[in-house]
Design goal:
Length: 186
């Protein structure tokens, strides 16, 4: 449709532009929905692939009750550990769980730990697990969440589209008044 003919049609009032805006919003919404759902499913599929193992007698050096010590597997994505045995590396004495706390894949001595174990080397035996494709999951999650954020802009697009239509209506009304000759004597 040619835009120079728009003012010659009676009763149009920017309907073609309004319909174009509605079609554009519908298509954007459809694409966003498809990619968000697909990204969510891909993120779930990737995150379910995990692995686990047991580490026996990993030596941690000079464990204290201030600084957390990372287990050797702490850098794996969503690392989780379950400490089974902790012994003093020097004399083999068992260190009870009241002397340390473990979170994720880190361990730290408690404030009330036995002073015989403070700043000593510990041998730690633990089971651990992690997500195999952590980077892939992070990328997929970031992408589909970013795409999902586009929906926040829909209200802005709708308001802008309504403003365009209202401006077109005002222009058409003004042109109609001019063409009718009502303002000729004013």
């Amino acid at each position: 449709m040619r835009y120079d003919k728009l003012n010659q049609k009676k009763g149009v009032a920017g309907l073609n532009i309004l319909m174009s805006i509605i079609a554009m919003l519908f298509m954007i919404g459809l694409v966003v929905m498809v990619f968000t759902l697909a990204g969510s499913k891909m993120g779930t599929a990737v995150s379910t692939r995990s692995d686990s193992a047991t580490i026996t007698n990993e030596t941690l050096t000079t464990v204290d009750n201030v600084t957390a010590e990372d287990l050797s597997v702490a850098d794996y994505w969503r690392c989780a550990s379950s400490i089974t045995t902790v012994t003093n590396a020097t004399d083999g004495a068992t260190i009870s769980s009241g002397n340390y706390t473990a979170s994720g894949c880190t361990i730290v001595g408690t404030a009330t730990m036995d002073s015989n174990f403070l700043n000593t080397n510990w041998n730690v035996t633990y089971d651990w697990s992690y997500i195999v494709n952590g980077e892939a999951e992070q990328t997929i999650n970031a992408t589909y969440q970013s795409i999902g954020d586009v929906a926040d802009w829909f209200s802005t697009f709708i308001v802008l589209g309504a403003m365009v239509v209202l401006i077109l209506l005002v222009v058409i009304v003004i042109n109609s008044i001019k063409q009718s000759g009502i303002t000729d004597g004013a």
